[in-house]
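Predict the 3D structure for this chain.
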Amino acid sequence: MNEIAELARQINREKIERARAMSLTEKFRAGAELFEDACEVARCGIRSMHPDWAEAQVEAELARRLEIGRRSKEAALAR
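Done. Predicted structure below.
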């Protein structure tokens, strides 16, 4: 087996073990942190596409994208 593939599998197994060992509170906090990290990545992408935009415009675009995601999820659940 490819060494890199085996390393990736081992890392994934370790992540799963750590997640299973977390309390509900820790899982909730981790989820919030992941969401904030994802928002920051999105902000960076928006800034990259629109370097001339003010922070308020970047935040408005992030909010617009999150709303699209929320609506998409609601539509999928309604089916």
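Helices lie at 3-21, 24-49, 55-78.
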